[in-house]
Amino acid sequence: MPTPQPLLVSLLGCLLLGCNRTPPVAPPPVVEQAVEDAIGKGFDELGKQLEATDLALKQKAVSFLIDGVRDNEHERELFSKVQHLEDLGTKSNSVSSRGAYYQHDTFFQISPISDIEAAAAKIDFGLVLAVDLSDRVVFVDAAAKPAPRPANGWPDGKAIDEYILRKTSTWAATQVDASLVQKFGREKVVVVHFPEEPPETPGLSPSPDQHRLVRTLRSLAPDTSASSFPGFGPKGKNFVSATVAPIADVADVLKTLDNTTILAVDEQRRVILIGPVADLRPPTAAGQEQAPAP
Q: What integer best gives the mean pLDDT of the chain?
């Protein structure tokens, strides 16, 4: 069959599409640039709005440190109840949940909550033990019955710090090197728990054996062993636990750590915690200043 001539093809196109049609004309460069600028400005405004919303949520975030958690089902129930403490009628909110320090405790952060004391007064799933207005933390014992706000107000952040250090000491005692316990006896072993040093290479944790405190402790007790523990506490900081042995008196370790910030000494469990305490506290709401280490 012969190939259609160009003229025939053109006539068929006119019949099908209309002979008076003209092909679309590309917009002038000026118009095209104006459209691109408008789109870019829209994205910039949207980005600023999202940033403002995110900052507002961070500023109104409240951390709930809860002890007395029975099991996973109880934890889910508590999380649901804590969520209901956020401000009513809000278009945006944020919730997070993670582990805390040791057994039977948990941590939630909820936003927005404008009035932290009003939210604490609504808690019906446990006894409010302390409210830190500065760092916006509420400490609750879910194993105890609720009670009205004390006439003089709830205890402050100091009560929360005492709990954190006690709970962390209990956990640190479980990190003891079993081989050194077997070799020297538990009464001759001390556990020292301290923050990991910043890595030289981002994302790569340094060896605990290279930590300056581990080297110091080995100058006292060469058999000292050390291990890393990533993501401890609500802030998820990396820590190191060192088992120091043989040590007859905990005071001997304290003398070796003379120029170091000592957070707590648990003589019974033979545990020493090293600061700063800010690494163990719940995250601070945006715009709030972190309380200094004691």
A: 85
